[in-house]
Amino acid sequence: MRKPTADLWSGVAMLAVTVSVCVPSLLGVGATHIPRWLWALIFAIFGAGLLGTVGALSRPVVHRLSYGVAVASAWVLVLTSPVGLVPVLLVVTAAASVYVVPLWCGLVVVALNTVVVALAPPHQGDGFLGAAIPTGFYLLIQLASLLSTTALVSEQRLRTQLTAANVELLTANMLLSESVRTSERLRISRELHDLLGHQLTALTLQLETARHVDGESSAAHIDNANTLARELLRDVRATVTQLRTQAPNLRESLAHIAQGIPGLTVTVNVADDVEVDEPVTMALLRATQEVITNAVKHSRGDAITIDITASDQATQFSARDNGVGATTLVWGNGLTGLKERFAELGGTVDVDGSSGFHVAAQVPRS
Q1: pLDDT tens, the chain, 366 aa long
Q2: Which of 249, 319, 250, 244 is nearest to 287 (CA)?
Q3: Which residues, 6+ apart, have CB-to-CB distance to 45 below 8 Å?
Q4: What DSSP string describes 276-311?
């Protein structure tokens, strides 16, 4: 999981404030309107709901249900406690709404919370002005908390999207560069084949003819020239074949994609015996892009390890992050496209979200 960050410490501070404002009621400072054990139980339910709201659970419905439980529990706690600081719980619920519901829903929660504050026991009997001042104060605090948290979460999401877009851009730029180099290699190979290959073939035919026409005294020289021409033609063809099949440097390309990802340490290990052609290289680069992008967007972890190995039968790709994983696997467009890309090469892709998020792929060795 991630190392402690400002977000984590702010969450710890919020939890400390939540507990501290409820300690007087829990310890019996002022009589609650319901049995103290029941009040303490509802407070525990509130804490569980709050953790479920901002915790690492991956299903949105769980977040929303947890948030509803937290809000309802906070209302009960405020309406049954005589201690004036307990409405701070409502400020916490207003801020937490940003993580699970749209802004307008958060504003509705703020409005309902404000009504609860106005009806709270500490303000009953104080008259209109006596109730309006603390009610207005908590309204402003809730709005400030809601809007500041909205700005913070929006910035985090934009930063995540920017990081993911940067990974995709790096990969696309590298693939484009390799495509240009591949096109240039193909152009050179065609020129070699069309020019030198044609000429050497013609030379071989001429020498073959001369060997049968000329006298025996020149036969040895003609045979040597014929052999030389055939060897030269073979070398040209071998060069053309090498130019057509030469793949980009896999290690350098992977290192280029993996470097400088904010908030994510990417470790890439490529075995020494891994040798792949251009289509497999492109598939491995796309797989690396996809797993890094998924880790940035969804994992909530801070590290991912990518291993590429080879056996006699296949080249294996394995990537695992240290994030929250996924209780329910969803094959989005990225993973589906990756599976299709490897299938075209005769390979397979498997994913597992039980311990972090793990992607395993393999493609037969040519």
Answers
A1: 444 455 556 666 677 777 777 777 777 666 778 888 898 899 899 988 888 887 655 567 888 898 999 999 999 988 888 767 888 899 999 988 888 889 999 999 999 999 988 887 665 555 666 678 888 888 999 999 899 888 888 887 787 777 777 777 777 666 666 666 666 666 666 666 665 665 666 666 666 666 666 566 556 656 666 666 676 667 666 666 655 555 557 788 888 787 777 778 888 898 888 888 878 888 898 888 888 888 888 777 888 999 999 888 899 999 999 887 777 777 878 888 888 889 999 999 999 887 788 999 999 986
A2: 319
A3: 69, 73
A4: --HHHHHHHHHHHHHHHHHIIIII--SEEEEEEEE-
CATH number of 249-366: 3.30.565.10
Report the 10 Å Cβ neighbour count for 12: 11
- Give dist(CA 16, CA 19) in Å, integer: 5
CA 20 to chain centre: 37
List where CATH 3.30.565.10 sits in the chain.
Answer: 249-366
Amino acid at 284: L
